[in-house]
Structure formats: structure tokens, C-alpha cells
Amino acid sequence: MSRVFFTRLFDLLVVLFGVSIIVFLMIRLIPGDAVAIMLGANTEITPERLAELNRRIGLDRPVIEQYLIWAGAALRGDFGTSLWTGRPVAGEILIHLWPTLELTFLALFIGALLAVPVGCLMAQTRGGMADVTMRVGAIAGLTIPSFWLGIVLILLLSSLAPGFSSLGYVPFSEDPLGNLERMLLPAFALALPILANLSRLVRSAMLDALGQDYVRTARAKGLSERRVVYKHALRNALIPFLTSVGIMTGYLLGGAIVVEQVFAIPGLGRLILGAIAERNYPLIQATILVVTAGFVLVNFIVDMLYMLVDPRVRA
């Protein structure tokens, strides 16, 4: 198992290395003079100003040297300073990181927690009215955009419960109930596509598991149907489920960008969009690198859990 662990860890480092190169080159592949764009239309663009900003960002050096300096600083947690505020980029990311992580993992928790019993129920009632109804609902959940669902939920809540706070963000440490009150709707809007996708996956995996010989043997021993489904069949059905959860986490991080705008949550999504609007490239590079590294790290953890659930992968 240690050999597989270090192999996966090496793959993770290689992926992060490749991502860092792509993120670094993004600013240099943009058509036009990126430095002139940073100065803005309301600033008199002179050769002196261009030279100063080039020197400040380090664009006056060779590309390879620029990357080595940037990557070396990034490994130490130094992503440079914001072009507009002058504050360290790492500090700004840390301020906005927790709301995004909370929204992402709360949505993942809701979606994954509900997907297992819903998928099992769909498999047990295969072909019945409950199965057909939930399958139609799952298809609808896959097609409804999270931002549209968020807007609809805000409108419904404002008419049904005007006193319920659904916009903005309150840190959990300051007001736990207020935090959950504001995060519940965006988390549900973000979780619905995940719930729909994972429940269909669990249904398919459970139908396959319930047809195996060991399940028929368990039933022949007189075990209850609940024990057969949730103890024997579900463990094997969770193998593809765990893999999909890791992939879904990456999509949740991307979807959180839009949902944060709808619910006015000051997370990484709003930070990235604000940095794009301001042409704040050091902040854009660092934020995208952090989000991508989080996605890769989650998939690494899922690989390790996959080996614990399925010992055959360790070989």
C-alpha cells in the first residue's frame, strides 16, 4: 500500500507542476499588452509607467526566470502582492477561502448524505412508482442550473418567510445559527445537481450489487432485507460512489463561483471575478492555482479512501 501511496503522491506533484506552468503562462498568452490593460483606460499610458509596472511584476525578466522566481515564492506561500490593494495575495485568499470551503463541503455533505438512501430506495423499488418519480426528479436536478435555482429559492423564501436571512455571510465563530441560516439555501442550490447525479450512480451500482451471488447467499441465510442492502450490497456500491464524490468536489468549487455571486457570499468566487474585472493578474494566478490544487488534493484523498474500501486496488 505504501508503494501505491507514493506513486499517487508523485502523480499529484506532477499534476501540480503542470498546472503551475499553465496558470503562470495564462497572463502571457492574453492578446494585447497585459500591462497596458492593468494600467486602465483612465490612466495616461507612458513608456515610463509601462516600464515601472513591468519591473514591479517582473515581466522584464526572461520567462523561465520569471517562472522559477514565482514558483519558488509560491512554494513558500508567497504569491506576491495585489496590484490594487498592495496587500499580500496569500492573505486575501485566506480571508475569502473559508466561505468557499464551507459552502462547498456543506453542499457536498447534503448531496452525498441524501444520495445514498435515495439511490438505495430507487434500487429497491426498481420499476415502481417511487423509482420512476425519483428518476424524473434526478433528471430535473441535473438540468436545473444552480444559479437559477438559487434565485428561485431566494424569491420563494422572501415571500414565504420574509424574516429569514438568505443573503450575505456571517462567520460561524461569531454566530453559528446565523451562519447556517445564510448558508443553507446556497448549499442546497449547489447540492441539487450532485444529489441527482450521485443518487443515479448509487442506484445503478446497487442494482448490480443486489444481483451478485453473495447477496443471494445472505438472503438465503435469513438476513433481513435492510441488513442485506445496507451492510452487504452497499459497501461494494460505494466504490464508484467515492470516486465520483472526488470528481464532484471539483465541479462544486467551480459552481460555487456563480452561487456566491447570487447569494452575496464573499468567497473565492467573488474574489476571482473581482480580480478579473480589475485585471489583477497576480491575484488571479494565485487563486486559480489554489482552487486547482484543492481539487487535485481532494482526488488524492479519494484515491486513498478507494484503496481502503476496495483492497484489490492495493495490489
TrEMBL record:
> Looking at the keywords, is Membrane present?
yes
The topology of this chain with respect to the membrane is: Multi-pass membrane protein
Keyword set includes Transport: yes
Parts of the chain that traverse the membrane: 12-30, 103-124, 136-163, 183-202, 237-263, 283-309
Signal peptide annotation: none
Q: Where in the cell is it found?
A: Cell membrane
Which Pfam families does the annotation name? BPD_transp_1 (PF00528), BPD_transp_1_N (PF19300)
Using the UniProt record, give the first listed, main subcellular location. membrane
Going by the UniProt record, its keywords in alphabetical order are: Cell membrane, Membrane, Transmembrane, Transmembrane helix, Transport
The residues covered by the ABC transmembrane type-1 domain are: 97-302
Cite the GO molecular-function annotations of the record. dipeptide transmembrane transporter activity
Q: Name one GO cellular component term.
A: plasma membrane
For this entry, the protein name equals ABC transporter permease
